[in-house]
Amino acid sequence: MAQEEGGMLAYYLLNGENIKAFPPGFRMLAGDTFQRNFTWPIPDPPQSLWFGAQGSQAALRQKAIGFNCMNYNVPYQEGTLKRHFMPSKEFLDENCPDGLRLEVMFPSCWNGKDIDSDDHKSHVAYPDLVMDGTCPEGFETRLVSLLYETIWNTYAFRHMSGKFVFANGDPTGFGYHGDFMEGWEPGVLQKAVDTCTNPSGEVQDCPIFHLQSQDDQRKCHFEVPDDLKDENVHSHQGLPGGVMIEEGPAYAFPIKYTTTPAAPSPSPTQTPDWLDSLSASLSAGLDNLHTGIDNLNTQLGLVAAETAEIASTSSTSSTSSTSSTSSTPSPSPTSAPTTTSISTPTPTPTPVTSYVEGPVTKLIVHVEREIILECDEQGKPLSTVTGDLRTVSTDTATITQTVSTDISMETPEIQQREVTRVHKRHGHGHGHLHRRGHKI
User: Fold this and answer.
1) Most buried in the list 15, 47, 351, 405, measured by CB within 10 Å?
2) Cβ–Cβ under 8 Å, residues 100 and 73
């Protein structure tokens, strides 16, 4: 899974005149998750030729997504929304050392009355140049122009074969999309639109906002919902959820899913010798991989030696206590019950453990190792070559877990009591803002 670089940027661009903030409860979509084709010329013709079908809302919607090859070492940078499809992995590996920037532009022309529609699109429209221009008839109310940007570290996979696919099963990029749900405090955004006109486009130059320092931002921890906390999105044969990859050009609705074939029934026949050898060869290669991962874990300091030592001490103390108090001589034959006044021996202190929970940031390292198995024409293994362990990418995750353990000893009060005993046997169980723009 490619790593996101720097989070998502949301640009609030002030394109047009008499711009209005989004009304309370306003919602809209940009793009179409089921789209798998692009029926317009590639690359885009000059904007002066965007009329007729080229200027239709259907065309403008597809021109509102972009895939920008990032290379900070060249003087010329690609323009926003200039490519509307996912570049091939070969192109990305060769030309985009700083990753791939995904862009989605939202409609900025509104019908002035509906805060949503059944398809979340019909109440809004694009101006005739997508990012700027003239709003169509019936959608004259001009909203803030909203642009999302996200950079993905595709270059980390340059030594690997394959292709990039979105989690919705889209390898083309034509199905890239974005959602927007208004959540501003009433009046704040409109006040910013009316007063924050500094051409720098920096949110720091807008006094309406009270900005947090980076240190304060780091203190904010998001508790991952239980439904997502344990979701496995890394070790998969295919996409998470079994979503099928659909190349297009057909519209990818309804969603299709892959099926996992049932495991074959055990065969009573004898396993061939060469298959045993193959199994042993693969097992040896995997053992080497596990050893490499264990070594990597040790180097990263992921072995909680101190906690293990505390737990071991507690366990040893408890075991010793049990051994000293539960050792009983072999019982004699049953005899008449006798009443004896005895003193309870000094009890062993009972360990009491308390736990303190808090946010912990985990470093997730994705590694791979190539295992090459050479076989003869009959499929019998000849040799196994195991490559070096290689880091593919790293990621971090913040979870809530035990961060410290306190152990105290409680000694029960010694008491004298009368005991009736019966003896018997018993068991124990970037800078592309147009006009006036602000990054928020």
Assistant:
1) 15
2) no
Nearest in space to 66 (alpha carbons), one of 100, 29, 40: 100
Angle at 428 between CA 426 and CA 429, to 5 degrees: 135
Q: What are the strands of the beta sheet with 124-125, ordered from one edge?
A: 124-125, 109-110, 141-142
Cβ–Cβ under 8 Å, residues 8 and 103: no
DSSP E strands, 213-280: none
Q: How far apart are the first and last CA of the chain?
A: 27
Is the overall model pTM greater than 0.85, yes or no?
no
Residues 6+ apart with CB under 8 A from 66: 80, 81, 82, 83, 84, 101, 102, 103, 104, 105
Per-residue pLDDT tens over the stretch 234-286: 777 888 889 999 999 999 999 999 975 444 444 444 444 544 444 454 455 55
Indicate if the alpha-carbon torsion angle 55, 59, 60, 63 is positive or negative: negative
DSSP state, 243? B
Pairing of strands 109-110, 141-142: antiparallel
Residues 6+ apart with CB under 8 A from 3: 152, 153, 156, 393, 394, 395
Every domain of the chain and the residues it spans? 4-242
| Nearest to 77, CA basis, from 93, 62, 66 | 66
